[in-house]
Amino acid sequence: MIKNFKKQNVWFVFTPYLWLVLFFFVPLALIFKISISVSEWGMPPYRDLFSLSENGLEINSTLGNYLFIFSDPFYIRSYLNSLSLAFTSTVLCLIIGYPIAFYVAKSKTSIRNILLIMLIIPFWSSFLLRVYAWKVLLQGSGIINSILIHIGLISEPISMLHNHYAVILGVVYTYLPFMILPLYGYLVKFDLNLIDASNDLGAKPLNTFVKVILPLSLPGIVAGSMLVFIPVVGEYIIPEMLGGSDKLYFGKIIWDEFFVNRDWPIASALAMSGIVILVFPIIIFQLMYAKYNFKNE
Amino acid sequence: MNKLFFKIFTLTIGFSFLYFPILTLIAYSFNDNKRVMVWKGFSLRWYKELFQNEQILEAFYTSIKIASLSATFATIMGVMIGFSLTRISKIPARPFFIFLSSSPLVMPEIILGLSLLLFFISSNHIIGFPSSKGQLTVLISHITFSVAFVAVIIQSRLSSYDKNIEEAAQDLGTIPNMIFWKVTAPVILPAILSGWLLAFTLSLDDLVVASFTTGPGANTLPIVVFSKVRLGLSPEVNALSAIIMLIVILAAISIYLINRSNIKK
Known about the structure:
Chain A is built from 13 helices and two strands. By secondary structure, chain A is mainly alpha-helical. The model of chain A has no long low-confidence stretch (mean pLDDT 85). The mean pLDDT of chain B is 88.
C-alpha cells in the first residue's frame, strides 16, 4: 500500500466511485422505486410514491406488481425457461468446448498459436452477425435443408427456425469461445508430465482424467461457465432472432413489457425479481467459490 | 495412432462448427440475387450497395466514435478503480465500492439498459439533463458497463506484480503520485491496452443497452443491422459481415505476428 497518498489525489478514488453511484446504483434504486409504484396513464406512467393532498402526506406504494408477477405462471415460466436455457447451454458449451480447449492446449507451440488465433477470431467478431449467420443457415431454403434433401434424409424442407432448439444452437455457437478461452488458459499451464506420471502409476485414462486433469482445470471450468451462464440468463437477441413462441424468455418479457405494453412498474418489478432470482445466486456462488479456493490454498 | 486420429477429428469438427456459419455468410455475400439463399452468380453488387447505404455508413461512424470514446473513459476509470482497490487502504465504504465496481459484470444487460433509460428520463424531468436521449446517453451507458471489465483486468495485473518495486521507489524518495506515472503505469501498460480493446469491442458489439438508451440521430451499427435482420435476411448485411470478418482476421493476424516477433527478440 502506498502511504501518504496525497490528499489532492482523492479524485483517483472518487471519480469512478461517483460515476458508479450515479449511473449504476441510482438507476437500480430507481427501478426498485418504480417497481413498488402504482401505474397510471400519463408521463411518467406511474404515480409518485409520495404525494401531498388535502389528506396530508399520501404514500402510494404497493407490492401489487410483485404479487401480479408471481401469481401469473406466464412470468414464472419465463424465469424458469431462462434458467434452463442458461444451464443447458452452459453444459453443452462445456462438453463441446472442453475437448477442443484440451487438444489446442496440448498441440505443439507453433500449431497452438495458430489455433489460438482461430479461436480468438470468432470471439472478437460481431455477436449479432454470428447469430444472423444461423438465421441464414436454418432458413427453409437454407443450406442445411438443401444438404439434408440432397442426401435424401428428408424430402421437404423442414422448419428449423423459430423454436427453442434453434435458440440453444445459437447460444451454444455464440458463447462457445467464452467457454473455450478460459479453459484453454488453465489447460495450457497444465504439466503434461502429470498425465504420463498417472499412466505410469497404473491409472486408467478415465481415472487420470477424473482424478488429475479435471480437478486441475476446475478454475477454468468455473470461469468459462460463469462467462456463458451469466449473459445467457438475460439474453434477448438470440431468442428474438432464432426463437419462436414455443418458449418465452425473461429478457424478451422485460423488453415487451417496457416497449410494447409501456407498463413501467411491471417491467421494473420483473427486473428487480430477475436480480433476486437470477443474479443473487450467481453472486452467492462466487463468494462461496472464493472462500473454497481460499481454504484450499 | 488412435489418439492422434481422435485429436485431429475433434479439432476438425470443432473448428468447422465455429467457422462454417461465418464462411457460408461470406460466400453468399457474393451472390447476385436478392433472395439471399438462391445462388444466381458471382457479383460484388451488395458491396456496392453497402457503400452507398448512408444509413449504414452513418451508423458505422457513430459506433466507432462512441466505442473509442467509451473505451478511453472506461479505461481511465478502470485504471483508477484497479489502482485504488489494490493500493489505497483508506476508501470510504470499501465493500460498497467493490460491490459497485464488480456487479455490472453479472448484471443482465437488459436490466442495465432498462434502469439507465428510466434514470435518464427521470433526471431529464428533474434537472433537465440529459436534454434528450442520443449519443451522449449511449456513451454514458457504455462507459458504465465497460468500466467493470477494465477494472478486473487492471486489478488482476496489479495484484500479481511485485509491490516491492513501488515501495522501493517510495524509499528512494519518489513523490507518491509520481510512483503511479513512473513505476506502476509502465508495468501495467499491456493490461491497459487489452482493457481498452475489450471496452472498445464491448461498446461496438452492444445492441441491448444501446437500444434502450438511444435517441434520434444516435443509431449505432448493431441497432441498424438488427432492424434489417430482425424479420428477414438482408444481402447487404451479408456483405457487411464479410468486411467485418476481414478486418477481425487481419487484426488477429497482425497481433499474432507482433507477438511472435516480440518473443523472438
